[in-house]
Description:
Layout: E1 14-19, H1 23-33, E2 39-42, H2 51-54, H3 75-80, H4 90-103, E3 110-111, E4 116-122, E5 127-132, E6 137-145, E7 167-170, E8 185-189, H5 193-202, E9 208-213, E10 220-221, H6 229-237, H7 239-248, H8 267-278, H9 284-287, H10 297-314, H11 318-323, E11 338-339, H12 342-345, E12 351-355, E13 361-364, E14 368-371, E15 375-377, E16 380-383, H13 392-395, E17 398-400, H14 407-410, E18 429-431, H15 442-463, E19 468-470, H16 472-486, H17 521-533, E20 539-541
Parallel strand pairs: 1-2, 1-6, 2-3, 4-17, 6-18, 7-16, 8-9, 8-16, 9-12, 10-11
Antiparallel strand pairs: 4-5, 5-6, 13-14, 14-15, 19-20
Helix pairs in contact: 1-15, 15-17
The site of NADP nicotinamide-adenine-dinucleotide phosphate has 24 residues, from helix 5.
Amino acid sequence: MHEKEPFVNHQFDYDVVIIGAGISGLYQLYKLRQLGLRVCVFEAGDGVGGTWHWNRYPGARFDSESYSYAYSFSQELLDEWNWSEHFASQPEILRYLEHVSDKFDLLRDIHLSSPIKAAKYNDQARSWKVILDDGESCTTRVLITAVGILSQPTLPSIEGMDSFKGSAFHTSRWPKAHSELKGQNVAVIGTGASGVQVIQELAKDVGHLTVFQRRPNWCAPLHNGKINSDEMQDIKASYPAMFEQCRTSQAGFTWSIDPRDTFDVTSDERNAFWEKLYASKGMAIWQGNFKDILVDPKANLAISEFIETKIRARIHNPVTADMLIPKDHGFGTRRVPLETHYYEVYNQPNVDLINIVETPIIRITGDGILTSNQEFIFDTIVYATGFDALGGSFDKIDIEGTGGALLKDKWNTKMETYLALQVFGYPNMLMINGPQGLGGNHPVNIQYTVEWITDLVKHMTEQDITRAEATPEGIEGWNRHINDKSSGSLMNGVDSWMTGVNKNVEGKGIRILGARYGGSVQSYRGLCDEVSSNGYEAMNLS
Ligand code: NAP
């Protein structure tokens, strides 16, 4: 038996250590400070902002409405912050997060440029030892990971990559000093959401742009626009209703799925509805569509054909248009990149599209890229090749649980969690936005999770609980639930980082059962609320 001791133990350096100072880590620090706890954040980057610190490639911007992607916890913050665009660009988003950090004086507890190498759980002391890359270490009762789901970039392994004499970088590691590629001969490899954003921006002023595409995605118009001050006042007035809408929607967005099925309406009504959605802002065509488009193959085919017609109409050369139509998955079954004149870019004389399934890249040369067809010469190569999603940022830290088991080994073949919040064998470690969690509008979901974790930590402090762990039964139940919720989804058969079949990561198999939770924001909250309101019965607290 373990002697009962208080949660706060001054032999430990901190009560809580948080890894990461992005949207999750900043809010978690703010909330835990309010409990009067000793909290410290370690952040690998040299500034706050997480995703929005790292992804500074030209064209990076929100594709959820700026105001719906922001924090809603502080009325003062909501009142004072004005967004300049419906879908803000990365510099504005970073300014916002820096403002939050300044306003709430968060920086004083954040160690920047402090990547963590390892975290080891000590079951005797019921605490974690956190070891930084530079060898420094500290101890803490609770460890919270706020590491993001798309933080670990993946590069392809192509022969000769090191031999390239020009500049080469991943979209999420864009050099601060290298903001302009004006007039250059540039290659982009990859056409996911990042690729689409960077391609449409670079095409404006590079000398020549060559896009190397493995598989196209179904993209839809973003319809961004400036927000004038009257409009911003109207948006502010709508905040309570808008945040309530996000909280009660399927995926946390401002759009709700239409309760009708595709073939409930006449073809004229259907087309009119789709025309309206295609002309609407942001995720409308994906998240505001008929409820069966992602479960009924016929409905999915119909919406895919509608989008295909739209794409073909925007591209002059039918051969190029054909290359940009996905053939291996239907609309919406992978993440829909939102675009601004993306398809029109391929009408420009300074842009070429290369199908690297037909003419594969053989190697990177000193001067450029050699495909099975020809050698291309470049000044810069941009890798828009995605991320080792969900597990990648955990894998790079040696997280050692009870009995010295490394999380990366445990998760090597199967990532399993309890409510995306905890892992069996890793007591007192809590995850914000962990694997098997909610997808969609992350800040909406992050805020809820941070508040849930804060309540748990408060409960631990009040009840002198020094050990909190998920149970194997809880994990089994969550796996079953994830399976049930994704059953029948057309996404299941499609590879993408969202379904855990991530071809960006060479050599890694399927590691996850239902990478993201397929239920709604409301049902996830309901389940988590039930756990906390019944005294965390489903967890092992002592
Ligand atoms: P991604 O969607 O995974 O796309 C990676 C791209 O690189 C795909 O086109 C992939 O081709 C290609 N690729 C990967 N490995 C390759 C290789 N070895 N050779 C050739 N091509 C290769 O990654 P992402 O575009 O960075 O986007 C990831 C996620 O980040 C998005 O789904 C979204 O959730 C988020 N994101 C959000 C925003 C926003 O909110 N504004 C912006 C950007 C990204 P295949 O398709 O054939 O695998």
